[in-house]
Amino acid sequence: MNFSPSFLGLLDNVLSDYLWAKAVLLTSTTVASAGLAIQVPMAAVVDTLTGNSPGLLDYLGATAVMVGFAGINIPSDTFSKSGEARIEMENEIAQLNSKDLTVPRNQDSAAIL
Fold first, then answer.
1. Contact 23, 35 (CB under 8 A)
2. According to the lineage, what is the superkingdom (predicted)?
């Protein structure tokens, strides 16, 4: 099969834009755009496997992109509270759940029922 270059270019651009838009809907614009930046480290790996090894600064840049992408995807509350604060909060919630939260009845309220 021999496709025309204009057809292949149209297919390539439309497909990549469609997939990027789907990624934005499933995640966020920041994560989707950072995901596009992962193409650079992937290209460095493929170049290494094919025998066209990039330079040291290329690997350093690829590492920075991967660390940035991982940093974006870490939930924001992961580092906000220490383990002790979480345990303390869980204990407080457990104490609240174990308390009897019923309204005490007196004789007048029992007569109404």
1. yes
2. Eukaryota
Query: Which value, to the nearest 10 degrees, does the dihedral of the CA atoms of residues 51, 55, 59, 65 take?
Result: -110
Residue 30 has pLDDT above 60, yes or no: yes
Distance in angstroms between the alpha carbons of the first and the last residue of the chain: 85
The token duo for 95 is 């104490």
Residues 6+ apart with CB under 8 A from 59: 44
Burial of 79 (0-12, 13-18, 19+ CB in 10 A): exposed
- pLDDT of res. 106: 61
Joined together, the tokens standing for residue 1 give 């099969």
pLDDT of residue 79: 67
* pTM of the model as a whole: 0.49
State CA 58 to chain mean position distance.
Answer: 25
